[in-house]
Automatic annotation (TrEMBL):
Keyword Transcription assigned: no
Binding locations of Mg(2+): 15, 40, 96
Organism: Marivirga lumbricoides
Binding site for ATP: 11-16, 40, 96-99, 180
Cofactor(s) recorded in Swiss-Prot or TrEMBL: Mg(2+)
Active site: 31
UniProt protein name: ATP-dependent dethiobiotin synthetase BioD
UniProt xrefs under NCBIfam families: bioD
Subcellular location per the Swiss-Prot or TrEMBL entry: Cytoplasm
Family membership noted in the UniProt record: Belongs to the dethiobiotin synthetase family.
Length: 201
């Protein structure tokens, strides 16, 4: 199984979900583009307990914590979707995108072009805030327009049943997990969520 993790925006919880999924599936993990340090690969690695997962080096590490298209410009790097290739692995693979689905890789291409190119399903992380219904439904519409398979939605943050209900009504996909506003993110917290999401995959 290969799964691409995207979100409705930056800092929505992609790395935490990636750690949870990597732990649940004992999968390999890969972040194709890292813009700014410290890197998300190190964060995920420190939250995963199993010994089977392999953490594949990023295709590009950019210095500026910004949209990949701008970070690449600053570093003098040319990013193009054609230059990204899925790593070879006999294991499950969790792939973490950069920022939200429509974050630009260059002037013409977007992060969401990667799962579309590879024809792999997406899990969408939606954190809940004022305006998140609009952002989530717009992202869902873009996934549908591109015929990208949506495996499910993960809600991150304090529960909001009204928001979650209307999003799921229009998503045509299940809620795979609800991540609470945890005081501290530890390996134990990740293991507990891993058991939960495994039941819903």
């Amino acid at each position: 199984m290969k799964i691409f993790i995207t979100a409705i925006g930056t800092d929505s919880g992609k790395s935490l979900l990636s750690a949870i999924l990597t732990e649940a599936l004992e999968a390999d993990y890969w972040k194709p583009i890292q813009a700014g340090l410290p890197g998300d690969t190190d964060y995920v690695k420190q939250l995963v307990s199993n010994k089977k997962s392999n953490f594949i080096p990023e295709a590009y590490v950019l210095n500026t914590p910004a949209s990949p298209h701008y970070a690449a410009e600053v570093d003098g790097v040319k990013l193009s979707i054609v230059n990204f290739h899925l790593p070879e692995t006999g294991n499950h693979l969790v792939i973490e995108g950069a920022g939200g689905a429509l974050v630009p890789v260059n002037n013409e291409e977007f992060v969401i072009d990667l799962p579309q190119k590879w024809k792999i399903p997406v899990i969408l992380v939606a954190n809940l805030y004022l305006g998140s219904i609009n952002h989530t439904l717009l992202t869902l519409n873009e996934l549908q327009r591109r015929s990208i398979e949506l495996k499910g939605i993960v809600f991150n943050g304090n529960a909001n049943p009204s928001s979650e209900s209307i999003i799921l009504q229009h998503a045509n996909a299940p809620c795979l997990l609800r991540i609470n506003q945890e005081k501290e993110i530890t390996k134990e917290v990740v293991r507990n969520y891993a058991k939960e999401i495994l039941r819903n995959l």
